[in-house]
Predict the 3D structure of the following.
Amino acid sequence: MFKFFEPNKIFSITFRAQKYVLFLFIIVLSIGLTEALILSPEDYKQSHSVRIMYVHVPSAWISLGIFAIIAFLSLGSFVFKNKNFPLISKSLAPSGFIFSVIALVTGAIWGKPTWGTWWAWDARITSMLVLALFYMMYLLVWRIFENKDQATKITSIIAIVGAINIPIIKFSVDWWTTLHQNTSVNILSETSIHPSMLIPLGIMTAAFVLFSLLIFLMKYNTELIKIKNKGLDRL
Amino acid sequence: MIYEIISMNGYGLYVWSAFFFTLISFASLFLVTKFQLLKEQKRFVSKFGLLNIEKAKKAKSQNINKEILANTLSSKI
């Protein structure tokens, strides 16, 4: 099955997919922004500041999701010795990092009118900051180490160790008393957000997923061409 | 109506700055990634141009190299 996903075989798909994903992203983002900024209702308690949720929450979800995928692939590269897994992980990391920064910054902006402070060392915020630091370490190792095998090993360790932080972020609001409210959107149980807000949230999440897919494809193709550039030197 | 959208009951500064920050981050990451991709594509084409006929033939025997050349010359994004 892994052979099907060999870079040489899927390059033509990943390269051509870029423009279609970009096109789709622009359409979905436009709809999402209209919904989030104009059409969705204000909250009875938070008024219009609730609109920050439409960029803050999807960013946090996606940064968590991407790190979970990176950790999973890093474990996979240790077990299966697959050379494509580190390449995929490396290509996913930049968008994951940007989303973790967006979640932190928009969270701080939302915190000021809601809690009266830009920052608090509460469990959810601190664990999100730790996630951003893990992303930063992960990306820095790829930049610093020229030996690819060494970089793969170190980044895999960082991703696997960092994965411990994922359930901490997810359950921090249940385990500790934090400024954050409890989970409002649930897959398995009832969601407490009204559809008029849930739909824009879903559209914005789809737009953000498309953006991370776009960046992933561009980065993955860059990495493949880099490898092929080295291959030309060896001819 | 427009004033309402901009001011958002006094929360406009917070809401708009959060959205602007997000969009600026997106644009920056997109441009940096695009620049890196173009740089590697250009490097590939110039390296390929320096190969002698035999090596170029050998390189072209790999489908991915052909794809990179074809996509680099036709790509707009």
About this structure: The mean pLDDT of chain B is 87.
